[in-house]
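pasting for ref
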Amino acid sequence: MFLKKTTGPRTAHLRDGSILTLADLPPPDTRWVASRKAVVVAAVEHGLLRRDEAITRYDLTEEEFDAWVQAVARYGRNALKITQLQKFRQL
């Protein structure tokens, strides 16, 4: 197996006991669903991916990514679901 050299860690241990790796990141042309958004946020929080790399790789605005981070921090992964957006905006 060939592993690409990276400057940061290759894996991160999440609070739920699971392990997140660079291979778990969604492809750049992904269709965004809550679980994929949460993976990108977790990768940045745990140092697998820098914030600016995530924004560039996934063609996000800084405000959009920051909104994801705030939603996860305040309400958890469910806040990233588009069907729950109005519910969590009112809180």
